Amino acid sequence: MMPSLASEVLVWHCIAERRRQQLRPVIVTGAAGFIGMHVCDRLLARGEQVVGIDALTPYYDPALKRARMAKLARHPNFKFCQIDVADFAAVTRVFDEAAADRVVHLAAQPGVRASIDDPMTSIRTNCDGFVTVLEAGRRHGLAHLVYASSSSVYGANRTLPYSTEQSVNHPVSLYAASKKANELMAHTFAHVHKLPVTGLRFFTVYGPWGRPDMAAWLFTRAILANEPIKIFNNGDMWRDFTYIDDIVEGVIRTLDRPATPNPAWNAEAPENSSSSAPYRLYNIGNNRSVQLLEFVDTLEKIIGKPAIRQLLPIQAGDVLETRADISELQRDVGFSPSTSLVDGLSRFVEWYRQYHRNNPPA
Ligand SMILES: NC(=O)c1ccc[n+]([C@@H]2O[C@H](COP(=O)([O-])OP(=O)(O)OC[C@H]3O[C@@H](n4cnc5c(N)ncnc54)[C@H](O)[C@@H]3O)[C@@H](O)[C@H]2O)c1
Predict the structure, then answer these.
(1) Is the CB of 84 inside a 6 Å radius of any atom of ligand 1?
(2) 36 within 8 A of 44, measured Cβ to Cβ
(3) Is the model's pLDDT at 362 over the cut of 90?
(4) Active site residues
């Protein structure tokens, strides 16, 4: 008798599961963060062992970070280590114990404003922390290190869409400079130690379990509370808003394709996104710019309530518009973001309401 399609799928699933179980663990830094939690969740869902690192910093309410950890902790293949990513001894201990062969490095002090107000913390976490992970990673012979860079590296550039082939030598915040520094450090480790390393320049990520300092959360909170929302540059700002599930798909696909030297790389006309070393650099965005006013209109419709709009001038460190050229990530890993703004924001608002029903303010 021919096996049914369902039983064939089950057998295939068991084989894939067993193969996963033979893999060494993945370390995810910034695991209690917005993107980190979702990346861990997806890795666990496909049967990976995951070791999460996070310092649960107070940049925004650590209760949200603890709630994300509580969600991940339900999974038997998840282990959490509360350590500072810039503490070399602690990071080395976790790397020794985990015996991981892949790392997704997301821990950072995010936020343009934070880097202006508290430059020392930004540099300690984003630069010292990054070198710590690179050094621990090369000592442990990682098969692949994927790390978060940012669209903010494009700084004062005005040619859209932003392509990795543009020079990014004019940052407009220390945060951006720290991410650009990460890219340089990553190339150095790829060159000197042959550490396979891939950077992803994230473009404005939003979705459930998102960050309280970002537009989706700030605007939703204010609209629901009948408070004014601050719209900078009178709303004439454009962002390549990218839904979290699309981002996670891109991160995992990238992780599964360790960076290799590019044999076509030409030292006399060097392209930025690859190298003679095992180094790659990609944009990861939606490839569609949305005006802030359209973002607010969409939220109002979803919430069913008008916003009180407070129009303000542009803030220091902000860029006017972002839009990602994602053709390289499309070509190399088949990245293809598919979530519309209205679907993504609807899922965010639904999650936001439920989260606050379950976690009312004290
Ligand atoms: N969310 C976005 O739109 C966006 C855009 C561009 C780049 N990024 C980058 O993506 C990564 C993840 O961002 P996110 O939005 O999830 O931010 P997040 O703040 O939610 O997550 C970062 C996590 O890192 C942890 N952390 C901070 N300092 C630490 C330290 N010294 N040691 C250990 N852990 C520490 C924080 O506690 C936090 O949980 C960051 O590197 C960020 O710069 C994010």
Answers:
(1) yes
(2) no
(3) no
(4) 175
* pTM for the predicted model, two decimal places: 0.94
Cβ-proximal residues to 110 (8 Å cutoff; 6+ apart), any chain: 59, 175, 211, 213
Say how many Å lie between the CA of residue 106 and the centre of ligand 1.
Answer: 6
In tens, the pLDDT along 149-170 reads 999 999 999 999 999 999 999 9
- What CATH number has the domain spanning 9-206+242-287+322-339? 3.40.50.720
The residue behind tokens 């590296």 is 153
**pLDDT tens digit sequence for 13-29:** 444 444 444 589 999 99
Does ligand 1 lie within 6 Å of residue 137's CB atom? no
Residues in CB range of 255: below 8 A, 6 or more apart: 26, 102, 104, 144, 146
Distance 200 CA to ligand 1 centre (A): 13
d(CA 94, ligand 1 centre) in Å: 19
Tell me how far the alpha carbon of residue 44 is from its chain's centroid: 17
Distance CA(16)–CA(76), nearest Å, equals 18
Q: Which atom of ligand 1 is nearest to the CA of 242?
A: 3
> Using an 8 Å Cβ cutoff, are 186 and 199 in contact?
yes
**Most informative mutation of 68, 123, 202 for ligand 1 (most atoms within 8 A of CB):** 202
Structure tokens at 323: 């839009």
The predicted structure's pLDDT at residue 13: 45
Task: Give the up-direction half-sphere exposure of residue 2: CA atoms within 13 A in the CB hemisphere.
Answer: 3
Q: pLDDT by residue (tens digit) across 300-341?
A: 999 999 999 999 998 887 888 999 999 999 999 999 999 999
Q: Does the C-beta of 110 come closer than 6 Å to ligand 1?
A: yes
Output the CA–CA distances (angstroms, integers) from residue 243 to 144, 248, 300, in the order listed: 25, 9, 18
Helix (H) or strand (E) run with residue 76 in it: none
Integer-rounded Cα Rg, in Å, for the chain is 21
Nearest in space to 146 (alpha carbons), one of 155, 163, 133: 133
* Paired sense of beta strands 197-202 and 308-312, if any: unpaired
Say how many Å lie between the CA of residue 271 and the centre of ligand 1: 28
Peptide bond into 263 cis (omega under 30): no
How much is the average pLDDT of 286-296?
Answer: 95
Residue 140 above 70 pLDDT? yes
The residues that bridge with 231 in the sheet, in sequence order, are 311
